[in-house]
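[audit] Reproducing an earlier prediction to check determinism. Same input, same settings, fresh worker. If the tokens differ from the archived copy the diff job will pick it up downstream; this log only records the rerun itself.
[audit] input (313 residues):
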Amino acid sequence: MFNIQRYTSDKQAEWDAFIAQSKNGTFLMQRGYMDYHSDRFVDCSLMFYLKEKLYAVIPANISGDTFYSHQGLTYGGVVMSDRCTTADVLQLFEEMNEWLKIAGVKKVVYKPIPHIYSSMPSEEDLYALFRCGAKIEARGISTCIDIQAHRKWRQNRRTALNKSVMEGIVVEVSEVSDDLKRFWEILDANLMQGHGIHPVHTLEEMRRLKSKFPKNIVLWVAKNTNGEIEAGILMYLTKNVIHSQYISATSEGKAKGAVDAIMHEILRSDTRYFDFGISTERGGTYLNEKLIFQKEGFGGRGICYDIYEYSIS
């Protein structure tokens, strides 16, 4: 039924055009984003044609005998056109599994796209996973704000916001390259102090990505009365969701409610959701209660990021 082809660079324009018109793809699946770390993964993205028209794709890589929803992406799974039906997706998985079996794959690790990122219902793949005998092997819990619901902030968050006003904190969208550099210094220092790690992206990687996707990757900063950055939120903007890729503040910024000032401005958006990202570690077995309490203080509530596994038999 399906003509399955492995992605090659000569198909980039076709791939990107499909992602743009799909019902559940985001700019993270565009090749300009995916391929910035192509040296770290063996790409095995697949393209599914039906009657000579591209019907679905899956961003993926392969390692040993395991086929992964692309490990360089937060979420992945099958990206579908609005023509996709449940029966067709079941057939797609059946034929994909046979293709993978012939390729020597024994296990599939699959990260579905959280429903908030879809422009219309798109969970046909979850049903197909059930039919494949897939099990949830990891589950992270993110905190998501329904912006249109206008939920009240906790008192401590409102107090911090009032503090930012008293301190003269000014919030703006940054268009200055040096602002990103300064934010990265704050971010890196906080991550090293708190967790002994660096950001997932280097400054140069983020600069390149931001230059390729200037409308999708945006830095909001909070500055003090001297014009110095006290906090920032680097955001990924998709059709339905504002995702906070990185949030960080100086010690002075934390005391002045600088992040709260940024959040106050961001949540004036007419976008549907704000997604903080997960507050879990070790496959979801550890919950950072202090971190998620802070996020929930802005009115956010839980949404799951799951990882499924199943065997190719």
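[audit] rerun output stored. Observation attached for the diff report: The CA atoms of residues 142 and 277 lie 5 Å apart.
[audit] end
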